[in-house]
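**User:** You know discrete backbone vocabularies at least as well as I do. Would you mind producing a protein record, from residues through to fold? Write it directly below this note and I will take it from there.

**Assistant:**
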Amino acid sequence: MGKLYDITLEDEKDTLFVKVRGFFKEEDAKVYLSEFQTMVNTIDPSNYTLIVDAREQEPVEKNVMGDIIAVLNIYLRAKFKKLIIVNPTSQTLKKQVEKCVKEVDFKGTFVCSLEEAYNL
């Protein structure tokens, strides 16, 4: 099926852009976490905005919910200047993410479009 995510450093916009899509399994989440952390280690996150475009991601299995929480915690611990998530189109996944957000002290912003994310 191919890669379920792209991680792009947009230096000219001081943005780390992540696009996630498809159906993440537990092993996909672990590989993503590793690659994301490797990218973050190359920058000073406090100078960057993190934009995560989750519009094309599909709902996850219950055993992957813990990985969503781990990802949110990694986003928070990196201390980005701004943390913006473009809401998933899937209402089921949106509810899953909202449940996970309640379990962490999430300081990010949820928006409905990529344009809105870049205009914040």
